[in-house]
Amino acid sequence: MASNERKKEILAEFFREVWNEGSDDSAGKYLAPKYTIYHDPGDPWDQKELDLAGFQERVRMSRAPFPDQRFEIYEFFCDGDAVVVTWFWSGTQTGEISGFPPSGKLIKMSGATVYYFEGERLRGHWQIADRLGVFMQLRQAATRLG
Question: What is the pTM of this model?
């Protein structure tokens, strides 16, 4: 089993390479053969098991409306094979999402994700995020466009 410090390093690299830089090809060095999304309400992949190709597609689709998205990690909490990451996210909406046209506005949210490890590989997550806040920001941006 990886040490707590090593798990934090892995997750920091994963966020930077995969989610912030959009290198979905890098996902393979972080994921176990099967990645399970145990709980992530509002995410189209909620309660699904993904292989590498499925996870890469998730990254591409998630980043498409916000290609400059950034996760800022606030804190890590470790317990056994689980690491909780609290984070702040932001991205400029340059693509359509959920029926909202591109607005060019900076959208922000916060959340917490429990990542589960299998050795030094991620095998899944359980997440809560302020998707209602995102919806409200998108609606406000769309109203200004109209």
Answer: 0.94
